[in-house]
């Protein structure tokens, strides 16, 4: 590479570093993140850069938060299909075009809806063991998905995570801080726990939990299975017996708890093996010295 090419490369590197430092000071997402999510620049701006109101014109009567929460209420009642800029405008007694001064379109609005509906993660006790801390985290996440069944389909596909959603990941990782797991293992553990919670929520939603929110996901699934199995016990004898047994000993609402405890058992066993494999420090030795 010639001198001119090297000079240009150095200048580009300096610009990238300056942009990153500037974005850190202003609270915006670094330029590299904007490059990764180039097609979702509008969502990045609203989620991370912030644009609470239009910069021109008179003092607005609307707010981005009001628009977002109205959209969430519509989605809670009728799913994502019920959310449209026209419908939101009608609910707020504004014109459809007035909403576009705050949010470019539905894609960006859904990104805001997800992060707002997720809310802040639970404040886990710092003096608590990792198991009860993660159990509280899991129960809180399950409750959020139960209150907003539309979140699961909204979260599918490539998208930008917002501050609240990323905060949930941070909270779970912090609970695993003193477990001896490395960074990749902590992330994998959170993915497994998250996957169990979402799977149950997805199954329950497909069986009608969205229209029966007073019931637990397990209650909805149990009722649906009983209805499907009626008169078909000869074809599904094992399933019929299992459902009947669960109902008899009142253990049919423990799918979430059972799965979490087995995941935690596996993690604890792995942590124990990891600790046993760790070489013990020699008496009188100082960490970091040969």
TrEMBL record:
Keywords: DNA-binding, Transcription, Transcription regulation. It holds the Pfam family TetR_N. Residues 61-121 form the HTH tetR-type domain. The keyword tRNA-binding does not apply. InterPro entries: Homeodomain-like_sf, HTH-type_TetR-like_transc_reg, HTH_TetR, Repressor_TetR_C, Tet_transcr_reg_TetR-rel_C_sf. Residues 1-32 are annotated as: Disordered. PANTHER family: HTH-TYPE TRANSCRIPTIONAL REGULATOR RUTR, TRANSCRIPTIONAL REGULATORY PROTEIN. This is HTH tetR-type domain-containing protein.
């Amino acid at each position: 590479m010639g001198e001119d090419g090297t000079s240009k490369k150095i200048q580009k590197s300096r610009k990238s570093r300056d942009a990153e430092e500037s974005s850190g000071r202003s609270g915006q997402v670094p330029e590299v993140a904007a490059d990764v999510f180039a097609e979702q620049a509008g969502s990045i701006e609203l989620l991370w850069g912030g644009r609470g109101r239009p910069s021109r014109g008179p003092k607005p009567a609307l707010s981005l938060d009001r628009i977002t929460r109205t959209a969430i209420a519509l989605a809670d009642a009728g799913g994502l299909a019920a959310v449209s800029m026209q419908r939101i405008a009608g609910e707020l007694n504004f014109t459809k075009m007035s909403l576009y001064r705050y949010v470019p379109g539905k894609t960006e609005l859904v990104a805001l809806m997800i992060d707002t509906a997720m809310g802040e993660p639970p404040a886990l006790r710092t003096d608590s063991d990792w198991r009860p801390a993660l159990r509280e985290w899991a129960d809180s996440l399950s409750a959020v998905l139960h209150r907003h069944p539309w979140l699961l389909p909204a979260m599918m596909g490539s998208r930008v995570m917002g501050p609240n959603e990323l905060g949930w990941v941070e909270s779970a990782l912090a609970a695993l801080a003193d477990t001896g797991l490395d960074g990749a293992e902590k992330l994998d553990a959170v993915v497994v726990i998250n996957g169990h919670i979402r799977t149950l929520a997805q199954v329950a939603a497909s069986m009608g939990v969205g229209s029966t929110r007073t019931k637990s996901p397990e209650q909805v699934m149990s009722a649906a299975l009983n209805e499907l199995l009626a008169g078909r016990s000869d074809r599904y004898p094992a399933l019929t017996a299992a459902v009947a047994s669960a109902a008899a000993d009142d253990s049919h609402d423990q799918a979430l708890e059972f799965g979490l405890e087995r995941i935690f058992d596996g993690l604890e066993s792995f942590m124990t093996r990891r600790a046993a494999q760790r070489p013990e420090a020699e008496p009188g030795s100082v960490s970091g010295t040969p």
